[in-house]
């Protein structure tokens, strides 16, 4: 075997193998690598877009949360004001009811005092007639002296 012929044969086989590899093996490998690079870059771009959207959504959630807190505080404030109004109205109604009850009690007391006075006048008139009878030692006719007894009741 000749070293030069073997070396030449190896060069020929190498170049045939290199040509075959460049023509049939290399393009699908490069195509697969390019597709993979494209998928990775699309995935990274989608991740960046997702991150931006997530950041925007987070900001929107914070805004909505702040608005909800403000709305809640406003509703609590309105409820407190309404409760204070209801309490004031109840106090006014209670004061009016108390005044009405006191006025009614005063009127009842005054009526009872007037009834007691009328009763006492009648009793005093009867005692006066009895006393006059005793003094005069004779019977005084109440029907005959009704005008006199009425005038005496009014004076008492």
UniProtKB/TrEMBL annotation:
It is found in: Cell membrane; Endomembrane system. It is a single-pass membrane protein. Keywords: ATP synthesis, Cell membrane, CF(0), Coiled coil, Hydrogen ion transport, Ion transport, Membrane, Transmembrane, Transmembrane helix, Transport. Belongs to the ATPase B chain family. It comes from Massilia violaceinigra. F(1)F(0) ATP synthase produces ATP from ADP in the presence of a proton or sodium gradient. F-type ATPases consist of two structural domains, F(1) containing the extramembraneous catalytic core and F(0) containing the membrane proton channel, linked together by a central stalk and a peripheral stalk. During catalysis, ATP synthesis in the catalytic domain of F(1) is coupled via a rotary mechanism of the central stalk subunits to proton translocation. Component of the F(0) channel, it forms part of the peripheral stalk, linking F(1) to F(0). The b'-subunit is a diverged and duplicated form of b found in plants and photosynthetic bacteria. The lineage of its organism: Bacteria, Pseudomonadati, Pseudomonadota, Betaproteobacteria, Burkholderiales. PANTHER family: ATP SYNTHASE SUBUNIT B (PTHR33445:SF1), ATP SYNTHASE SUBUNIT B', CHLOROPLASTIC (PTHR33445). F-type ATPases have 2 components, F(1) - the catalytic core - and F(0) - the membrane proton channel. F(1) has five subunits: alpha(3), beta(3), gamma(1), delta(1), epsilon(1). F(0) has four main subunits: a(1), b(2) and c(10-14). The alpha and beta chains form an alternating ring which encloses part of the gamma chain. F(1) is attached to F(0) by a central stalk formed by the gamma and epsilon chains, while a peripheral stalk is formed by the delta and b chains. Residues 44-71, 99-126 form a coiled coil. This is ATP synthase subunit b.
